[in-house]
Amino acid sequence: MAILQAWFMDNSHEDPQLPHHRNPYEFVSPDHLAELGVLHWKLNPEKYEEDEELEHIRATRGYNYMDLLDLCPEKVENYEQKLKNFYTEHIHADEEIRYCLEGSGYFDVRDKDDRWIRIWIKAGDLIILPAGIYHRFTLDTSNYIKLMRLFVGEPVWTAFNRPQEEHPARRKYIVNFGEKIGMPLEAH
């Protein structure tokens, strides 16, 4: 089973859809991501409609809303602008839950030292970003991803662009993950 790939990013402002590895590469472990509140599961995307593990995650975490999104130039109006919006650093008041069914893309999150970590999600990766974590998203050079989006209750799409240090979700995130405290992991 493939492990989630994540690494510290270089400081280049070139095409955001490139990998942006540092030289030498500096990979980030799943434990380091967990310290930031980022959770991950590897599931079988070919059986998402009848996946017991996915249903268990949804039931346990209260994800009762679900939709699917094909993100590519052919299927999204104003594709370039949408990608720019997704790539603007922001937080949400709620968790961001995404399950990659096809294709691939990058979630970038800030670590405790404000460094960017790039997380490469591919088919089968379910990722949860905690409320209040600074992050952004872009596709990789494949220019295609099919995502399942999960929410507790009705979906809220509001992004709060940085800076948001006084936002209640950001303040709660700092309390929960600001110190180097480990958290029990049920994800894998």
UniProtKB/TrEMBL annotation:
Involved pathway(s): Amino-acid biosynthesis; L-methionine biosynthesis via salvage pathway; L-methionine from S-methyl-5-thio-alpha-D-ribose 1-phosphate: step 5/6
Protein keywords? Amino-acid biosynthesis, Cytoplasm, Dioxygenase, Iron, Metal-binding, Methionine biosynthesis, Nickel, Nucleus, Oxidoreductase
Instruction: Tell me where the signal peptide lies.
Output: none
Tell me its cofactors.
Fe(2+); Ni(2+)
Cofactor binding comment, as recorded: Binds either 1 Fe or Ni cation per monomer. Iron-binding promotes an acireductone dioxygenase reaction producing 2-keto-4-methylthiobutyrate, while nickel-binding promotes an acireductone dioxygenase reaction producing 3-(methylsulfanyl)propanoate.
Question: According to the lineage, what is the superkingdom?
Answer: Eukaryota
Family annotation (CDD domains): cupin_ARD
Residue positions binding Ni(2+): 90, 92, 96, 135
Zinc is among the record's keywords: no
Reactions mediated catalytically: 1,2-dihydroxy-5-(methylsulfanyl)pent-1-en-3-one + O2 = 4-methylsulfanyl-2-oxobutanoate + formate + 2 H(+); 1,2-dihydroxy-5-(methylsulfanyl)pent-1-en-3-one + O2 = 3-(methylsulfanyl)propanoate + CO + formate + 2 H(+)
Q: What is its EC number?
A: 1.13.11.54, 1.13.11.53
- Biological process according to GO: L-methionine salvage from methylthioadenosine; methionine metabolic process
Where does the record say this protein resides? Cell membrane; Cytoplasm; Nucleus
EC top class named in words:
oxidoreductase
Do the record's keywords include Oxidoreductase? yes
- What's a single GO MF annotation on this record? acireductone dioxygenase [iron(II)-requiring] activity
The GO cellular component terms are: cytoplasm; nucleus; plasma membrane
Q: How does it sit in the membrane?
A: Peripheral membrane protein
Q: Where does Fe(2+) bind?
A: 90, 92, 96, 135
Function text? Catalyzes 2 different reactions between oxygen and the acireductone 1,2-dihydroxy-3-keto-5-methylthiopentene (DHK-MTPene) depending upon the metal bound in the active site. Fe-containing acireductone dioxygenase (Fe-ARD) produces formate and 2-keto-4-methylthiobutyrate (KMTB), the alpha-ketoacid precursor of methionine in the methionine recycle pathway. Ni-containing acireductone dioxygenase (Ni-ARD) produces methylthiopropionate, carbon monoxide and formate, and does not lie on the methionine recycle pathway.
Which PANTHER family does the entry mention?
Answer: ACIREDUCTONE DIOXYGENASE, ACIREDUCTONE DIOXYGENASE 4
Q: What family is this?
A: Belongs to the acireductone dioxygenase (ARD) family.
Q: What is this protein called?
A: Acireductone dioxygenase
Query: What lineage does the source organism belong to?
Result: Eukaryota, Viridiplantae, Streptophyta, Embryophyta, Tracheophyta
